[in-house]
Design a protein that fits this description.
Blueprint lengths: L21 H10 L6 H12 L4 H11 L3 H10 L11 E6 L2 H5 L2 H12 L12 E6 L11 E3 L2 E3 L7 H9 L2
Parallel strand pairs: 1-2
Antiparallel strand pairs: 1-3, 3-4
Helix pairs in contact: 1-2
Amino acid sequence: MAVAGAAPAKGAESQGNIDFPKELSSFIDEWKVKPGSLIMMLHKIQETFGYISRAAAEKLALISGIPLARIYGVITFYHFFKTTKPGKYKISVCLGTACYLKGGQDLINETRSILSLAPDAVTEDGLFSIDPVRCVGCCGLAPVITINNDTYGKLTPDMLPAIIAKYQNG
């Protein structure tokens, strides 16, 4: 039994012991009875926390009655769902057709090189993560990256150090 105000036991978060905000709990209570609602609930969890932790997936399984294996089957099938916490600044590099043809992959390579970042990793300081995305809807600005809610278009790899430095310096 947990003591009020005490820190959770080591490993407790990985046993579904995570607090869902009231809004998220209400959303899940409403949607868990609807057929085919798993993806909607996972989207809401990721929107709330920025990713879907093991503890969040386990808690969803407990309160929805959906087997954890099925939840992980969906999470791992769809590239959109993340199981690791993203960086404070999430860099999305568009690889839609227009961006890809105009150098989107070069932008990914250069960004990873600047930040010394492997695929699906976060910088040691927790500031940056990089995700290739299929389209950001700015084809006329190709190639495009977004950093959180900021969009940068008509980029070349040599423009990236200045953009990234803007976020590194606050």
